[in-house]
Amino acid sequence: MNTSTSAARSKSNEERKTIRAERLKLLRRNKAFLVGAVILGFWIFIAAFGSFIAPHAYDAMDFMAVSKKPSSRYLFGTNKLGQDVFSRVLAGTQLIVWMSFTATALGTIVGGSLGLAAGYFKGWFDIILMRILEAISAIPVLIVALLAIAALDGQSSSITVGVIGFVFAPNIARTVRAAVLSEAELEYVAAARLRAERTPHILFKEILPNVLPPIIVEFTVRLGYAIFAIATLSFLGAGVETGSPNWGSQISENWAYIFSNIWWPTLFPAAAIASLAVSVNLISDGLLEVFEV
Amino acid sequence: MSTTPSLELRNLQVQYAVRGIKKDVLRGVSFSIAPGEAYGLVGESGCGKSTAAFAAMRYLPRNGKISGGQILFEGNDMTAMSADEVSNLRKSAISMVYQNPIAALNPTVRIGDQVAEVFELLGESESDAMKHAAEALARVQIADVDSVMRRYPHQLSGGMAQRVVIAMALATNPRLLVMDEPTTGLDATVEAEVLDLVRDLRRETGTAVLFISHNLGVIRHMCDRVGVLYAGSLVEQGTTEEIFNNPSHPYTVGLLRCIPRGGLHKNTDRLDTILGTPPALGAKFDGCVFVDRCVLVEDRCRASMPEPAQVGPQHMARCFHHDKAQSMPRAIDAVQVSVSAPASRPTTGTRLLDIDHLSKAFTQEGRTVRVVNDVSLSVGVGETLGLVGESGAGKTTIAKLILGLTGSDNGSNVVLDGKTLAATLSKRDVADVGAMQIVFQNPDQALNRRHSVTRIVSRAVQKLRGFNSNESDDRAHELLSGMRVEASLHSARPTQLSGGLKQRVAISRAFAGSPQLVVCDEPTSALDVSVQATILNLLVDLQKQDGTSFIFISHDLGVVRYISDKIAVLYLGRVVEFGDSNQVFGGPHHPYTEALLSSVPNIDGSVRKRIPLAGTVPSPSNPPSGCVLNPRCPRMAGSGVEGLCTTVEPELKEVEPGHFMRCHIPFDQLRATQQS
Q1: Contacts of residue A194 in chain B, CB cutoff 8 Å?
Q2: Which tens digit of pLDDT belongs to each residue from B482-525?
Q3: CATH dotted code for B351-571
Q4: Nearest chain A Cα to B405, which residue?
Q5: Would you call A17 an interface residue with chain B, using a CB distance cutoff of 8 Å?
Q6: A120 in any annotated domain
Q7: Which CATH architecture has domain B1-93+172-223?
Q8: In this complex, is the C-beta atom of A210 within 8 Å of any C-beta atom belonging to chain B?
Q9: Is the whole model's pTM more than 0.80, yes or no?
Q10: How buried is B606 (Cβ within 10 angstroms: 0-12 exposed, 13-18 middle, 19+ buried)?
Q11: What's the per-residue H, E or C state across B614-638?
Q12: How far, in Å, CA of B392 to CA of B189, rounded?
């Protein structure tokens, strides 16, 4: 009995691996996903190891080389304070990657839990919760974020993360709720109730795994928005610690000089934001196709 | 016959490309349909029936390709035609009726406009087209044509929608009509009406029909000649009489044997099965396609495909052993299941479950809909209670009320083994929850597709028996092996299993807590007949061994008759007849039961006069006054109690020992009218 079951286990572990392998194969064939993954992988690598690659300290000023065009010494040129734009772009990566992932993860966990509960319990709980969430999502993200940040502490990145997560939660809740509504009607849920399972088990162990694909796709979509929101807030001078080398502030500090033909301190951080946002969107397109949500 | 056949398939081969790999779906199928003839194609799912139908219209899915052979329509090769020529044929000469009529109609267009569109395509003016549409609908016996023409598809019943689809298909006076499972999914009485209609229309128009069905009874009643498909190969062909009375291919013989037909009962007869499982799509064969499941297999069967053997003047069987097929040994899955019963059970026959005055009303748009109305039934230990009735009769709701999945209304009582249970599941203790379990109709939805087979069963053991996770895993493996789910599949996901295996897993889960009563809600409706037989055998074995009681819900009266000891017939949430299986099937019947029984096309070919029910099932939100059956009752007129029937709702009375009926017509009078 035991040998046959362990043989069985190893055999269908292989089968399961082939399913996973097939899905991976589909993803690997998907050009949008591939391009997105390579770019995002690049930025995550930079976020982790950027400080080792950077040729200069991001805040080191070289007064002999102020507003210099890109050259072999300063790859992306220098800004009006003589700081190396290349090193500053590298140094800014960590903050935006960390903030956008954490904010989206927070929104997904909170929104996902609310959506699960609303879709499963239905009735009054669902009606009231969804109306509240709709009210929240009716206000534009940036305005809520600006207000909240101004009211709390204008310069704290962790508060910004919390605010963005809070603002994203309603959208994610709605997506999850829609998926749960149809899923909860399926008979495996009735079967779980018929073996006296507690509600949290039914929600998180039975239903959640089946609604993961739309959650993952929604996560990547929201991640794109988070990157955008964080960049915008920091451009406006809110939501991040002053003096931190983030992309948004780099643009806001330098964009006025574009008219003096000093375009490089603005272009490179802008391109960085664009490529990060595009990569995340490409990934969500690819996932959408493979999961067929 | 020297006339050109309407449709002729010559050695037709079709391949589907699945992820770039070409798979054979039809392996050289040849048959012809004469003008005015009805030709039936039967076979289990995946054998290529629908592919043959679509190929006959040259309407294959994108990844399908005709890789050889010819399709001749009135002598012209359709495989050589241009797309325009084919589409002209489809417009004027060939029509198709699909399985799901609601899906075949455009939900946003009124019925009248939809039917008229067919005529407009042929170049008629709008007003002419509308007039012709009304005529076409009248031809399919739709009573109030004007009101139906103004309605949208969702406002029609399934039977009515299928009539509209048939009207559209016949609108152009096609010379060939392809019908792909036209009555699957319809209730028995509606199915009988649609089939009668098709037969009448065919007599009238002389259209040739290619009729596809998995239901052998339907085929027997509808077709002149029959072809049996297996794994994309036509294994037997002949006149309907020949195929059913003198089947000569082991597959046909097996198919006919595994159907629970009239008179068979679990106590006296074990169902035959067909061994093994159908081959995977596009499997490769050197010899006969049926070798893996045939009890007569020999070496030469594996080495080469047998040539079609002429069994009779119009009868072909592709088998070396066609002369021995009928005397082939029975294939019975004799392996006994091993599910150890925990404690001793009270002796068979004592009462286990009592349902008293069970009711359930839902509020819908401010109106009260009484879905289940004062149902009282009982189930004995080791007994099977069959619930029959058409869709909307409340069968599944009753099951959910008993299990506590839906809370019943005040005044309802569910008493299990002498203990009155709370109305909802959350208020019942674990032992009571585990004592009653269910096997659902659709195992795809009933098994969590993200969990392994072991986990699904083991978790139920753990929760209901209080085992720790190691013990429960071991017990799950034991249970699954007992249900003959191979050990190699225990860690697979449900999606990797066939329909029959999934249902075995679902049964294992239901038995994990050693239940006293298991509700089986259409457990075999989604399965092929050979698989159905093995599942029914398994359920019967489990019952004999453990003394488990069943409540068995099915629309298939043959299956219910085979497995049930007692039967309750439901109509509009009420029990109209309740009694021993013999009493209910043997008669005298309640008028509704009588109509229901007479509408089932049986495979023995015996012709039974159909007793039609007038009209359609009334809405439960607005039931007729008096007896709820009275507007449709086939026996009310001339019974002498019409006044009572339309004003007073009859009680469920005991008409003979153990036989209950809800009818004003005296029992002896029913006996007399039904015997004449």
Answers
A1: 403, 405, 425, 433, 437-438
A2: 888 888 889 888 988 888 899 999 999 999 988 999 999 999 98
A3: 3.40.50.300
A4: A190
A5: no
A6: yes
A7: 3-Layer(aba) Sandwich (3.40)
A8: yes
A9: yes
A10: exposed
A11: CCCCCCCCCCCCCCCCCCCCCCCCC
A12: 13
